[in-house]
Structure formats: structure tokens, C-alpha cells
Design a protein that fits this description.
By secondary structure, the chain is of the alpha/beta class. The chain has a single domain (69-363), classed as Glycoside hydrolase, family 3, N-terminal domain (TIM Barrel). Helix content is 38%, strand content 12%. It has helices spanning 48-59, 63-68, 82-91, 104-121, 137-140, 156-173, 203-216, 253-259, 288-298, 321-328, 339-352, 354-373, and strands at 6-8, 32-34, 71-72, 74-75, 96-99, 102-103, 127-130, 141-142, 177-178, 222-226, 241-244, 263-266, 269-272, 304-307, 333-334. The strands form six sheets. Strands 4-5-7-9 form a four-stranded parallel sheet, with no helix packed on it. Strand 4 (74-75), helix 3 and strand 5 (96-99) form a beta-alpha-beta unit. Helix 1 (48-59) crosses helix 12. The longest helix has 20 residues, at 354-373. The protein starts with 5 loop residues before the first strand and ends in a 5-residue tail after the last helix.
Length: 378
């Protein structure tokens, strides 16, 4: 990798202390532009040029923009109105958007508009995500190419082909982050038909194939729902669910982490009667024991840790749930009920708690690293 060349563009995020803006005119931030091209697989590699690029971009951000990197609301039929997202962009309080239930053409148009606004207001480009699982994509993104549901596939070749088809559609739209595959076991009715678990032995190799093909196409793949949603009986959309005793599904994650999956989604599932991994009544998303101790430290996961949707019944009643998820070790707070409130909540703790500030800075740098590796700042 050649030495990174970093330049400052007038449309960016670094405040110039020497230039005085005319009275009553808001000085627009300046964006750091990265001229060296990196690859998605560079994210997990030791790369001093990429490290330097991350630090340069990070140094250009004020605390409002740093915290914004961790916030990802949704837009679409089951998300926020576009006008709400527009206001969040203007206020510089979000770092990405989940495209939730809409059309291929509509999402493509919105993404183009959001990026034009980011350029206008001096924001970093966004990560754009979708629940583009084989079992959901044709319902979540109308007009997408028809594919079989995950539990209907018959071979690993079908899985690879499916990942290629979905990824082409996502690239056409401008979506760069897929919350797929589901690596849960199949018994749970809510997630069972969405995983490759109809034959348990297929879960790891087929999920690995889906991840491999997705990331070859320049899109982040996500293994979910950690630490395991398949063997609980209920639905975390409605209420907090419980793993009672042993974490039987965590065995699915080490092979995928070793393979290089770039993102893992944490479920709103509590753990009880487990001396080592007890969550004390909190969902895993808000448990440092699960996110930091188990996923990051024991399993060595270095990619992006994203929460499941924070408006779900399994977490929404937890006070300051956005702050608690970040304190637990999550890097991205997905679909908070109120993105502005979540940003304010995290920022207030950021400004008064040095240990939490260091945690937020580390998460923001991971998001920035991903954006640079994807070429979004090129």
C-alpha cells in the first residue's frame, strides 16, 4: 500500500481557526479527503496508512460529529419520514441511515439526495444499511430481484448466487451495509425461516459463503443475532426474551469472525442462570458482559458491533438505552426511537465521563475506518 496522501477540501469537516467567517454567516466545516484507495478487506488488517487516514479524519471532527457516527436511524414506510432525516443531516447528528421498507427507485433517489445534503453541510458520507436477507429483501425493497428464502435454498452454490444478486441490487441503489446473514438456529418462529438452519450443519458454511460473496461486492455483511436468537421461544420485537442457562448458539460466531465478517448485530435478549454471562435483566445490547467481555475480548471481534433496532420491545423500556448500548461496547445505535434524543444522551455523557469518551472515540474511529476502507472519502 502506498503512503496515504491526505488533502483538505473546502467542503469538509476541519474548522479553520485562521479564517474568520463574515458576521452572521455559519462557517461550514471542511471535509478531509483521502486520495489513497483502500479496499474493504483492509478494515481488519494492520495498515499504518489506513490508521493515519482515520486519525486525520477523526481530528477534523467536533464532538457533535464524533457522536453522530454512532447513530443510524431508519427511513421508509416503517421508519422516519424523509423530512426528519433531512433535519438530522442539517443538525449533523447521524452517521448513517437504515433504508426500511420502500422501493428500489425511491431508496436510490433518497440516498443521492442525502449525500448531496451531506456535502452541503460538511458531513462525512453515510453508511446506508438494509435488512436485505434472502427471506426479507423482496418485501423490504420492492422492485429488488426475486430470490429464494434462506430456508428454501438447496445448495451452497444457490447461497452464493443469491448473495451476488442481492449485492448487485444494493450496489445499484447505493446501499453499502447489509444486515445479513441470520446465523441463528431454526426453532424460533421469528427468525427460523430467515436462517440457513433448516439443516444445522449448513449454518456456518452457508453463512460464510453469503458473507464472502457480499463482501467481495464491496458491501459489509452482518452476522446476527448475537449471542443467539434461535433457541428462545419469543419475539424480541414485542418484549425482552431470555436465554436460560448455556449460550448454545455462540459456537456459530468464531468461524465467521475468523473468516472476516465485518459486522455483528447484537440481539435484545437477556441471559439468566449463567454465572459467567449473566446480564442482570438487561438485554445483551446493553450488557458489557456480552458485548465487550464475550464478543470483543473473548472472541476477538474487531469489526462493527451494531445493535438490533432500538425501538423494539426488548430494549425500548430501558432508561438511557442508547447510552447503555454504547457503554456496553456497541459501535452503532440502530433505529433509536428519537435520534436527536439518543445523540444528546450520548453527547452529555461523552462530555463529562473520560472513560466513556474514550469508548465513543474508539467506536467513531471504527465507523470512520469502515467509510475510508469502502472508498466513501476517496
Amino acid at each position: 500500500m502506498k503512503v496515504a496522501i491526505l488533502s483538505i477540501l473546502s467542503s469538509g469537516l476541519l474548522f479553520n481557526s485562521c479564517a474568520q467567517a463574515p458576521k452572521n454567516e455559519v462557517k461550514k466545516p471542511e471535509v478531509v479527503h483521502i486520495q489513497t484507495q483502500f479496499a474493504l478487506q483492509d478494515f481488519l488488517q494492520d495498515n499504518k496508512d489506513l490508521d493515519a487516514a482515520v486519525e486525520k479524519v477523526f481530528a477534523s471532527l467536533d464532538d457533535t460529529a464524533i457522536v453522530a457516527q454512532l447513530i443510524m436511524p431508519a427511513v421508509g414506510r416503517l421508519g422516519q419520514e424523509k423530512t426528519t432525516i433531512d433535519q438530522h443531516i442539517k443538525n449533523r447528528i447521524i452517521g448513517g441511515v437504515l433504508m426500511l421498507n420502500g422501493t428500489k427507485e425511491g431508496f436510490s433517489s433518497w440516498i443521492a439526495d442525502f449525500e448531496a445534503q451531506n456535502k452541503k453541510y460538511g458531513n462525512l458520507p453515510f453508511l446506508y444499511s438494509a435488512d436485505a436477507e434472502p427471506s426479507l429483501v423482496n418485501r423490504k425493497i420492492m422492485g429488488s430481484t426475486p430470490v429464494k428464502k434462506a430456508n428454501e435454498m438447496q445448495s451452497i452454490e444457490e447461497v452464493r448466487s443469491c448473495a451476488q444478486i442481492i449485492s448487485k441490487d444494493l450496489n445499484d441503489i447505493g446501499i453499502n451495509y447489509n444486515f445479513s446473514p441470520v446465523v441463528d438456529m431454526s426453532p424460533n418462529a421469528t427468525v427460523g425461516f430467515r436462517s440457513f438452519g433448516a439443516v444445522p450443519a449448513n449454518i456456518i458454511p452457508w453463512s460464510g459463503a453469503f458473507i464472502d460473496e457480499t463482501q467481495k461486492q464491496g458491501i459489509i455483511a452482518t452476522a446476527k443475532h448475537f449471542p443467539g436468537h434461535g433457541l428462545v421461544s419469543g419475539d424480541t420485537h414485542k418484549s425482552l426474551q431470555m436465554i436460560d442457562g448455556e449460550l448454545k448458539e455462540i459456537q456459530n460466531y468464531p468461524p465467521l469472525i475468523a473468516q472476516g465478517v465485518l459486522s455483528i448485530m447484537v440481539a435484545h435478549i437477556a441471559v439468566q442462570n449463567n454465572a459467567k454471562y449473566q446480564t442482570n435483566g438487561l438485554p445483551a445490547t446493553c450488557s458489557k458482559t456480552i458485548v465487550t467481555d464475550l464478543l470483543k475480548n473473548e472472541m476477538g471481534f474487531k469489526g462493527l458491533v451494531v445493535t438490533d433496532a432500538m425501538n423494539m420491545g426488548g430494549v425500548v423500556a430501558v432508561p438511557e438505552c442508547a447510552y447503555k448500548a454504547v457503554a456496553a461496547g456497541c459501535d452503532i445505535v440502530l433505529m433509536p426511537v428519537d435520534a436527536k434524543k439518543a445523540h444528546t444522551e450520548i453527547l452529555q455523557h461523552y462530555r463529562k465521563d473520560p472513560a466513556f469518551k474514550a469508548q465513543v472515540d474508539a467506536a467513531a474511529k471504527k465507523v470512520i475506518r469502515m467509510k475510508i476502507a469502502m472508498g466513501l472519502l476517496h
